[in-house]
Amino acid sequence: MTDPRERLLEAAARIYAEQGFLGATTRRIATEAGVNEVTLFRQFGSKEALLRASLERAGAEILSPGLPESPSDPAAEVARWAVALWEQLAAHRSMIRTCMGEIETHPEIMPTCGSPGSANTAAKRALCHYVKSLQESGRARRDVDPGPAASLLMGAIFADAMSRDLMPEMYSRPARQTVTEYVRLFLRAVLVECA
Amino acid sequence: MTDPRERLLEAAARIYAEQGFLGATTRRIATEAGVNEVTLFRQFGSKEALLRASLERAGAEILSPGLPESPSDPAAEVARWAVALWEQLAAHRSMIRTCMGEIETHPEIMPTCGSPGSANTAAKRALCHYVKSLQESGRARRDVDPGPAASLLMGAIFADAMSRDLMPEMYSRPARQTVTEYVRLFLRAVLVECA
DNA sequence: CCGTCTTGTAAGTACCCGCTTGCATCCCCG
DNA sequence: CGGGGATGCAAGCGGGTACTTACAAGACGG
To answer: What is the rounded CA–CA span in Å between residue B78 and residue B76?
Structure first.
């Protein structure tokens, strides 16, 4: 808590999420951390190294929700998973948006967003595996490709979490309700039953 | 073409899309426009005014694809619309990502992304209207809410267009194929027929 | 041919940037 | 209690920022 290194890492992540790489000046990070600017350079050597360490930690604390190994109640299980995913993404929306906007110009400080091991690829793998299990047990149609199907649901959840606060008039229903509706439509497209 | 004002507007949009507000320095914009930096200030008064004018124009040239007033072949019509939407979004991905990352800190220069009249709200309205027409003609299920349904498809297309180049290993199929698969799943969830 | 209007050039303003140095201060461990 | 390591403070470095001023050169219409 009072460890300067810790406070710098926290302040750096917060300010970077709000202001981006150029906007997150060392003076400002140090001030908001309640630490002298010189300590920042003594601890991390450079602004870039600080940001890299800070974003690596921030990226690691976005955790992918889990899905049961063998499906039993798809509607409930996927709905719970989807809501949890939305909440994770929405909680980090500023950071994610800033990273996406700057990954082209600052690829070196990025927490390896798309690499295996990151939260989104883990989530994608989990949903793909879940759909395949449904297919193997005969509950999901075999003519759907799990990859694009998972991208459909995840993409909708991602887009909702990223843009709902920026253009609220695009969304007529509250987030939870909308996400569960995404899941309903997704399952109707994927499951065999036609009721 | 050789009009300095025009070249400044074009260079400003391009550099802003790559570098963001703070990265788009007046020197760099003027240099890349082949114009003296002083001319920039004489023409626009300030960097902020130039960026505002430039982004307003850039935002207006993202045009929303159209959908027939009365549906006849939903699979083909929605597929064509979805591919056109994806291409529009993908063509402007850098600009859109930068804007989304900076709209919190620079809301005043943003081309009013979510307001009525912008491309995405127009696209959403068009798809909602199309789904309602399908419902009224008995071809779409009445128990689906057109708003969330449209958000599902548009969100997936948006997320795909924004993140496919950043994390290609998340997408197993090429873009066109994936988008048409989104549409297939979307229509299977929305249409009444169960084949 | 003159006057205005636009642009280019050169220089300079005040400020902020990342980063460094020198020195005083403090705390903790031996 | 004494010494080393982490921290704070004050100042400064070279360079970049948005923006300004003063002046010369060319275009274009009356």
So the answer is: 6
User: What are the b/e assignments for B94-112, b being 16+ CB within 10 Å?
Assistant: bbbbbbbbbbbebeebbbe
Long-range Cβ contacts of A42-48 (<8 Å, 24+ apart): A43/A4, A43/A5, A43/A8, A44/A8, A48/A108, A48/A109
pLDDT in tens, B137-187: 999 999 999 999 999 999 999 999 999 999 999 999 999 999 999 999 999
Quick one: DSSP state of residue A88?
A: H
- pLDDT for the residue numbered A128: 98
- Where chain A has pLDDT below 70, the residues are 1, 194-195
Q: Residue A140 and residue A189: Cα distance in Å, rounded?
A: 9
Which candidate, B111, B119, B106, B89, places its Cα nearest to that of B20?
Answer: B106
Average pLDDT, chain A: 95
Residues ≥6 apart with Cβ < 8 Å to A7: A1, A33, A34, A35
Is A59:A9 a contact under the CB 8 Å cutoff? no
Buried b (16+ CB within 10 A) or exposed e, A121-158: bbbbebbbebbebbbeeebbbeebbbbbbbbbbbbbbb
* Residue B1 banded pLDDT, cuts 50, 70, 90: low
Contacts with A89 from chain B: Cβ below 8 Å: none
The predicted pLDDT at position B194 comes to 63
Residues with Cβ < 8 Å from A193, sequence gap 6 or more?
A139
User: A111, A89, A79: which is closest to A165 by C-alpha?
Assistant: A89
> Are B191 and B140 contacting, i.e. CB atoms less than 8 angstroms apart?
yes
CA of B41 to C1' of C9 (A): 15
C-alpha to C-alpha distance for A1 and A111, rounded to whole angstroms: 24
Sign of CA dihedral B26, B17, B96, A92: negative
Q: Which residues of B touch A186 (CB under 8 A)?
A: 152, 185, 189
Convert the pLDDT of each residue in A2-22 to its tens digit.
Answer: 899 999 999 999 999 999 999
Q: Which of B47, B92, B151, B184 would best serve as a mutation to test chain A binding (most A beta carbons within 10 A)?
A: B151
Predicted confidence (pLDDT) at residue B193 exceeds the cutoff of 90: no
Nucleotide nearest to A22 (CA to C1'): C17
